[in-house]
Amino acid sequence: MAVTSGVSFILSSIFTVILFSGMQMYKSWLTSSQLHTIFGGYLGSMLFIFILTAVGNLESSIFGKNFQLKLFPEVFISLLFSMTASGLVHRVSTTTCFLFSMVALYYINKISQENYSASMTTTTLHTKKKK
């Protein structure tokens, strides 16, 4: 079931705070082995997704439904914040956070293009005339 942009902003903000505080509370466990450090980077990429969702929904609520996120400043600032949070856990978590976040951003963009570009391409295909 879909929720409004305002509710999605609140939920994403809550998940962001919970995930950030969880990363800080379990910092010693996340640095205890190499696999846990990589998992810390994965949690940082999840933090990136939640921050990006919160920022996007806040801007959508303020500026209207047609407002789109841009690479700079929204995506860049979200990535910077999530990498900083991962860096508070471990330096390697920062690198893996960046890599996982880039993969997540690719798939978010791909899903967005499939959902929102499909309606635009069908309208342009019907306007072409046969010769």
From TrEMBL:
- Topology with regard to the membrane? Multi-pass membrane protein
Membrane: is it a keyword of this entry? yes
Q: Which GO terms describe its cellular component?
A: membrane
* Keywords of this entry: Membrane, Transmembrane, Transmembrane helix
InterPro entries assigned to the protein according to its UniProt record, in alphabetical order: KRTCAP2
Q: Where does this one sit in the cell?
A: Membrane
- Pfam families (alphabetical): Keratin_assoc (PF09775)
UniProt keyword Membrane present: yes
Transmembrane ranges, per UniProt, are 6-23, 35-55, 75-108
Q: What family does this chain come from, according to its entry?
A: Belongs to the KRTCAP2 family.
Name of the protein this chain belongs to? Dolichyl-diphosphooligosaccharide--protein glycosyltransferase subunit KCP2
Q: What organism does the record attribute this protein to?
A: Cotesia glomerata
